[in-house]
Specification:
- The protein has helices at residues 52-61, 79-91, 104-108, 115-122, 155-161, and strands at 2-5, 10-13, 21-25, 48-51, 67-71, 95-99, 127-130, 151-154.
- 24% of the residues lie in helices and 20% in strands.
- A hairpin with a 7-residue loop joins strand 2 and strand 3.
- The protein has a single domain (2-174), classed as Alpha-Beta Barrel (TIM Barrel), CATH 3.20.20.70.
- By secondary structure, the protein is an alpha/beta fold.
Length: 179
């Protein structure tokens, strides 16, 4: 199975979730957020395809990283490939964060033809930062998000309780130590 990514994977990010992280930059986005941080990832046909086995091989070699982050572009345009990658990260005791321009509710809406694929991916994600970036709500003081409309969601609790459960601010630095 292949996945379309925008560039090489980042192995040492400290801004895309807590701790040192491997970031997979997916290619393709339909949201067209004004002043997007990653406009080079928008073209659905841009970037290049790689075998997910290559990404999984890199995950297995990680030593210092706390987790992986699925970013882009829009990760939920490629949920099947990312499900396999996220599952492997969890097997290797890494936490999984994902960014999306969709809301949690949109991903699981009964009218969404991809809701089951989205749900299968979400089952392997610990934290989801959801919502489009909104320039008029941009705030440099926000942790792990660009605009105040975006939410930092505890996916495990949200799926369990069938409603959005936000990560509490004071828990963000130690989010996974209690699990």
């Amino acid at each position: 199975m292949k996945i379309r990514i925008s560039s090489s994977t980042t192995f040492d990010s400290i801004v895309d979730g807590p701790g040192l992280r491997m970031v997979i930059w997916t290619q393709g986005c339909i949201h067209n957020c004004k002043d997007c941080h990653n406009p080079q990832t928008h073209d659905i046909c841009g970037g290049h395809e790689v075998e997910i086995d290559n990404i999984i091989s890199n995950i297995k070699k990680l030593k210092l990283q706390r987790g992986i982050t699925l970013s882009g572009g829009e990760p939920f345009l490629q949920p099947e490939a990312l499900e396999v990658i996220a599952k492997e990260a969890k097997i290797n005791n890494l936490d999984v964060w994902s960014y999306t321009g969709f809301t949690f509710e949109q991903l699981l809406d009964s009218r969404n033809p991809n809701r089951f694929k989205n749900l299968n991916l979400l089952k392997h994600i610990d934290v989801l930062v959801d919502g489009k970036f909104e320039l008029d709500k941009k705030d440099f003081n926000l942790k792990f998000r660009g605009s105040s409309n975006q939410r930092v969601i505890d996916v495990v609790k949200s799926l369990k309780y069938k409603k959005v459960m936000l990560v509490e601010e004071y828990m963000q630095d130690n989010l996974f130590e209690a699990r």
